[in-house]
Amino acid sequence: MAEVLTPELESLTGLRYRPSVRELEKDPEKLDLFVDAWRKILAKPKEDESSFHHIAGIHGFPAPISCQHNIHFFPWHRAYLLRLERALNKVDPTVALPWWDFTTDLSLKEGLPRSFQSVANGGVDVLASTKIVFDGDRETMRELSSPSDLPPKSLVENAMRQRNYRSFRDSYYTRVHNAMHQWLGGDALGPQWTAFDPAFWIFHCAHDRDWWLWQLDPNGADPPFPNRILRGLDMTVGDVLDINKLGYEYATTEIAVEA
Amino acid sequence: MTITVSKPFQCPIKDFEHEDQRFDLILRGVHHLGCSYEGRVFLNNKKANEKTKRSAKSGYAGSYFIFGHGDCYGAPGHCGPAPTRLPYDTTPPPDSIPIEIHLDISEALKKAAKKSADYGVTITIVPFAKGKAPGVKANPKDVGKIDGPISIVGYA
Ligand SMILES: [Cu+2]
Predict the structure, then answer these.
(1) Which of B145, B146, B104, B116 shows the shortest CA–CA distance to B45?
(2) pTM to 2 decimals?
(3) Cβ pair B65:A191 closer than 8 A
(4) How far is the CA of A200 from the centre of ligand 1 (A)?
(5) What is the CATH number of the domain that holds B15?
(6) ipTM for the complex shown
(7) Count of domains forming chain B
(8) Where is average pLDDT lowest: A4-8, A229-233, B49-53?
(9) Yes or no: is domain A2-255 CATH 1.10.1280.10?
């Protein structure tokens, strides 16, 4: 009989573990910690570099639009997610960004995870929308399509089958990522204000996870131009290729199976 | 908002009678500086518009998605036409140049071609934009703009 060990990778490796939103929602205490940290970075003045508003403003307004959706779409957004996670960690080192698997049966039935839905649907106020202080204190808005219109799993799988970075990026970006912005509608339709919608962070985190899983495939190649600076983020493409070097991980357990 | 309707073309479906043949729709020169939209592709439905249902009956073949830049907010010239690139220029192309879209439309195309006389097919591309948010400025003129050429690539 093989002996099965299930060590907690987080305590073993010191890496921050990024949970799925659904998993986070199953543990109300953990969800509360996450929401508390979110509230704290929201409350920081926009001049503070670790405030939600400062960071959300790097993607689009009010700064010159810095987001990169070209060949470096994946590295840029990896560095960007990290920027927000580090801001959250400044107020609570135990929290991590959660990711939303929008391809599950539950998502196709219910759409956004409960905590990110509108307050009327049981969502948490600060995860449902953001009051954009740069834009006359207005709330971000969405024009959600029906849950069944979310990009199907087959499109993600199709991207994962691509054998070089360029076709992986092209396939994932145009069919999955762009479809997510269109699905959310409202402020998600342009780079200017999309990062102010809390939902931006959880679907982009899923994209980052998918890229990581693709990178783990021995055939998965690195993006070109590793020395390029990721605009507005003080990191290069090469800096973000290994998520463990950035201090986080998506895997939870490693099971040693004796033969 | 630009709806693109192709001239009828002959789909070489009779040369490909087996199951796993594949047809990709290739759109070149697709603009993406305006607002975001879904490009809905319909076959043999020249009158398709924003209100047309995405169903087999309406000839719906699939959608592609554009995440638009939503107008230019950069410095003057930032989004202008890309300067001519030298052949040995290995830097990434600027974000603003029109892109290429590939969409697998095999199933719908095979059906449409078999149904029509002489395997004739037309393609209609209908941009569908949401865009009610006050902060997302968009120039509807750019939505759905395709410089072309448009082609179908068949894999036997
Ligand atoms: Cu995005």
Answers:
(1) B116
(2) 0.86
(3) no
(4) 7
(5) 2.60.310
(6) 0.76
(7) 1
(8) A4-8
(9) yes
